[in-house]
From TrEMBL:
<dbReference type="InterPro" id="IPR036812">
    <property type="entry name" value="NAD(P)_OxRdtase_dom_sf"/>
</dbReference>
<feature type="domain" description="NADP-dependent oxidoreductase">
    <location>
        <begin position="27"/>
        <end position="297"/>
    </location>
</feature>
<dbReference type="GO" id="GO:0016616">
    <property type="term" value="F:oxidoreductase activity, acting on the CH-OH group of donors, NAD or NADP as acceptor"/>
</dbReference>
<dbReference type="InterPro" id="IPR023210">
    <property type="entry name" value="NADP_OxRdtase_dom"/>
</dbReference>
<dbReference type="Pfam" id="PF00248">
    <property type="entry name" value="Aldo_ket_red"/>
</dbReference>
<feature type="active site" description="Proton donor">
    <location>
        <position position="61"/>
    </location>
</feature>
<feature type="binding site">
    <location>
        <position position="124"/>
    </location>
    <ligand>
        <name>substrate</name>
    </ligand>
</feature>
<dbReference type="GO" id="GO:0044550">
    <property type="term" value="P:secondary metabolite biosynthetic process"/>
</dbReference>
<protein>
    <recommendedName>
        <fullName>NADP-dependent oxidoreductase domain-containing protein</fullName>
    </recommendedName>
</protein>
<dbReference type="InterPro" id="IPR020471">
    <property type="entry name" value="AKR"/>
</dbReference>
<dbReference type="InterPro" id="IPR044497">
    <property type="entry name" value="AKR4A/B"/>
</dbReference>
<dbReference type="InterPro" id="IPR018170">
    <property type="entry name" value="Aldo/ket_reductase_CS"/>
</dbReference>
<feature type="site" description="Lowers pKa of active site Tyr">
    <location>
        <position position="91"/>
    </location>
</feature>
<keyword id="KW-0560">Oxidoreductase</keyword>
Length: 324
């Protein structure tokens, strides 16, 4: 095991970004149930010390401010040489997914983060909501049809203005990506989606690979212990057996598996030992047999409600265009 910040995190080159930009495959996730700023700040500083350089936030997570304070502190302490060494992602919330609100929303996120630019700005969901409210889940009466073309044009403008180096989407089906690609002058660099051994996203991964779109896995460990998460991933007997045989933890098996699928991933941990453990996955590999066993795991989508109203199966079908 590597010591201190000697961990080497591989990077992936982002298509369609301003300049040659690359993204560390492993990021620090900040989607938590009850955001505690002090805990988050301490964890970010520990993560930076360990070698993390990629940080994932969103306006809706309520974590931008604390992450920004931690980054400012890390720069002041000289834990990182300059802002350029970091890769910071944030996301446009649904109530701002209207053409005239995209740039102001990004500026607000930059203000929260105390940054001049983001590395990546994502459309959080393919859903627009009535402006002015941050509600989760969004009430049915507040959902309005998204003007994909104009919202994407505004996202492109964000990149042209230098407010972000790259743009992308989150929770987009193949069909919805196809639609964006049909008119985009800057195609999305990334699609961030739920992905773990229980929800492997095989079709989406192939689709994105063929179009030079990087997939980022959120909830790579099944978000155990959160309001939206499941224990199924961390309690999987298949993963337990593989972990035991490899002398690794279940979390490491999950993350290594995602890495071997060619995706990037943003596990959330505010615990130093687990942050370290999640980094220690780049100098070993799963066997063919392990990969085969994982490919046989029964698939079950964890996030059933999404941003919309309570578990209406029709809504879920529509959101994912039947790609379930
Ligand atoms: P903690 O923050 O206490 O480490 P996901 O990344 O899928 O959203 O999952 C997040 C959950 O998984 C959190 O509850 C986090 O707890 C836990 N977690 C993160 N890394 C590990 C690990 N290496 N082993 C066990 N649990 C982990």
């Amino acid at each position: 095991m590597a010591a201190g910040n000697e961990y080497h995190i591989p990077k992936m080159v982002l298509g369609s970004s301003t300049g040659q930009r690359s993204m560390p495959v492993l990021g620090f996730g900040t989607a938590a149930d009850s955001p505690d700023s002090a805990v988050l700040k301490t964890a970010v500083l520990e993560a930076i010390n360990l070698g993390y350089r990629h940080f994932d936030t969103a306006f809706a997570y309520g974590s931008e401010q604390a992450l920004g304070e931690a980054i400012a502190e890390a720069l002041k302490l000289g834990l990182v040489g300059s802002r350029d060494e970091l890769f910071v992602t944030s996301k446009l919330w649904c109530s701002d997914a209207h053409p005239h609100l995209v740039i102001p929303a990004l500026q607000k996120s930059l203000g929260n983060l105390q940054l001049e630019y983001l590395d990546l700005y994502l459309v959080h969901w393919p859903v627009s909501a009535r402006p002015g409210k941050l509600e989760l889940p969004i009430k049915e009466e507040d959902v309005v049809p998204m003007d994909f073309k104009s919202v994407w044009k505004a996202m492109e403008e964000c990149q042209r203005l230098g407010l972000t180096k790259s743009i992308g989407v989150s929770n987009f089906s193949c069909k919805k990506l196809d639609n964006i690609l049909s008119f985009a002058t800057i195609p999305p660099s990334v699609n961030q989606v739920e992905m773990n051994p229980m929800w492997q996203q095989k079709k989406l991964i192939e689709f994105c690979k063929a179009r030079n779109i990087i997939v980022t896995a959120y909830s790579p460990l099944g978000a155990k212990g959160t309001r939206w998460g499941t224990n199924d991933v961390m309690d999987s007997q298949v993963l337990k057996d593989i972990a035991l045989a490899r002398g690794k933890t279940i979390a490491q098996v999950c993350l290594r598996w995602i890495y071997e699928q060619g995706a990037t991933f943003v596990p959330k941990s505010y615990n130093k030992e687990r942050l370290k453990q999640n980094l220690d996955i780049f100098d070993w590999q799963l066997t063919e047999d392990d990969l085969h066993k994982i490919s046989q795991i029964r698939q079950k989508k964890m996030i059933r409600v999404g941003v919309l109203h309570a578990s209406d199966p029709k809504t879920l079908e529509e959101l994912w265009d039947g790609e379930l």
